[in-house]
Design goal:
alpha+beta, 37% strand
Amino acid sequence: MKNKRTIIALVGVLVLSVIGTTVTYAMLDTPKDKKTSYQLAYEKNAEKDTSVEVFSVRDDAEKERILNMKDGTSVELTYDKTNNFSLNNKTDVYLDSDNNQYLYKNGSKLLGVIGAKEQYGESGFTEKTALSEDELIEIGLKYAEDMFGSDFDNFEFCDFTYTEDTDLYSVDFCERHGENGFIIGRSGGTTLRADGTVRSCLKSERYDRDNFDEKLLDGITEEKLEAYADKLAKAAYGDIYIDSTVEHVEIISINGTYCLEIGTIVEYKSDIPVDRNPDTIETYYYEL
């Protein structure tokens, strides 16, 4: 199982979702009677979401907030707008005095901060001022811990990456569950410039972590989910199916139902001569 690659992708998905870009997950195209009840609920909810206005202003939103950081500092915030990412996922956007965006899911749960673009043009740092990987990781984790406080207690360092297009480093963190930590709970990351300037710090809230019962994961093993994904892939691809590999497993919920989102690489035969068999990433769901 290759959790690393998908954790990196999740951080990117999180950033896109909270700033108003719609991200669509691939759904298994199987006959209706073969779909799980979760999958059907997901699709029904997605159909409703097409009519949701992307941005709005909530009259009942808390107009002013004070974010108290773990390091003893505080930030005064003013309500700006609400991002209606879906019917059940509304993100309130608050601004500080420098126009940095602080994000709260459904008006309460802090998701993190995205730095104002005007503050992050040419940074002016040189190779001499660039920090080491260990230093950037320390800054990224410390920033997240200060921002999220006790809500960050169960997170751990997951990966460190560099994106050339944005010239940013990402310190990724996540919660792990199950045997050997193969199931991802919440995840997120801090993005920084080479000099340690924080560009953003965000975490996901794709399920109700506070009320989640760990007993729901009893009996869930990597082998069991590999077999489950393999069965669905064979049913979908039929004669052209070759093999499948579970890439990541993450806990999510919709309409109060918890389930495991299983990112799976499916290898299949091609009619066109190629050096290697093509593959694609499918997303399957296992209801808990």
